[in-house]
């Protein structure tokens, strides 16, 4: 029989209902015992770390996975952040299933923790974290996601690292659907053996919907000649812009 373990004034036993515990914790009904707990998730993360190496760690993270589809957006949002930080935790593979399924709980639902994004953005950010732990199914799902309008931004950096040739071959398609992905692709490929100037000429004209494109190219593309070629391609339809570089 697994011995009880007390962490942060809570006793974990073989009878602990982890999905119910995590949901209550993420609703702010359990935990929050330290002044440093700025959000309910802080308690869950701290407890998970302290349970590492015990039989209770995996059930706790699977409880977080169950919370990914909780009724409350603030619970779902915090569960997504958990798996962004800890993609290798047990239950994290559920992120793939959610991306591959009905995303109505996420798309268009404002993220209480990050008001500038919705929960679909956070779901795709969690998918990106799975790419970074070499989850091939996550790579395949990201390839599909970046072909949908507005979905590339959270995953494109991880996808470029995992499969640069695939991204370069389809760069126009990706950027046409998500203009903000363009500058990320270019920055990520610096220092590789790809022809960055050629790639920039291909995608820069598609990036006018991204108000930060020219600023970020000017700031983060290191090679002056490459930078100028990209900006020249961009400026063909925007002659009023004058880069500071």
Tell me the distance between the termini: 67 Å
Main sheet strand line-up: 1-2
**Estimated radius of gyration:** 21 Å
| Main structural class | mainly alpha
Which overall shape is indicated by the principal axes computed on the Cα atoms? elongated
Helix content: 40-55%
Average pLDDT: 94
Main beta-sheet strand count, sense and barrel state: 2 strands, antiparallel
- Supply the number of helical segments: 14
Domains (count): 2
In short:
With 245 residues, this protein is mainly alpha-helical. It has helices at residues 18-26, 40-50, 57-67, 73-85, 94-99, 119-131, 136-145, 156-162, 164-169, 171-177, 181-188, 196-203, 213-220, 224-235; strands at residues 5-7, 10-12.
Write a concise keyword list for the protein shown above.
245 residues, 14 helices, two-stranded antiparallel ribbon, 2 domains, single chain, 53% helix
């Amino acid at each position: 029989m697994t011995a009880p373990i007390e962490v942060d004034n809570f006793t974990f036993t073989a009878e602990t209902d982890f999905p119910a515990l995590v949901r209550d914790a993420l609703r702010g009904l359990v935990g929050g015992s330290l002044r440093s707990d700025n959000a309910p998730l802080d308690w869950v993360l701290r407890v998970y770390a302290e349970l590492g190496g015990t039989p209770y760690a995996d059930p706790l993270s699977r409880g977080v996975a169950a919370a990914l589809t909780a009724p409350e957006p603030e619970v779902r949002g915090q569960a997504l952040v958990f798996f962004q930080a800890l993609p290798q935790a047990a239950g994290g593979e559920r992120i793939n299933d959610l991306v591959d399924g009905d995303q109505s709980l996420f798309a268009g639902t404002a993220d209480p923790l990050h008001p500038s994004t919705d929960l679909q953005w956070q779901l795709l950010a969690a998918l990106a974290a799975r790419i970074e732990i070499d989850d091939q199914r996550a790579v395949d799902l990201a390839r599909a996601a970046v072909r949908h309008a507005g979905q590339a931004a959270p995953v494109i950096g991880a996808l470029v690292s995992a499969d640069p040739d695939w991204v370069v071959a389809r760069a126009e398609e990706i950027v046409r659907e998500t203009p903000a992905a363009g500058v990320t692709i270019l920055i990520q490929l610096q220092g590789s053996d790809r022809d960055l100037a050629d790639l920039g000429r291909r995608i820069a004209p598609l990036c006018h919907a991204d108000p930060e494109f020219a600023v970020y190219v000017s700031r983060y593309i290191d090679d002056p000649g490459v930078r100028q070629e990209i900006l020249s391609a961009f400026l063909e339809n925007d002659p009023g812009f004058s880069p500071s570089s």
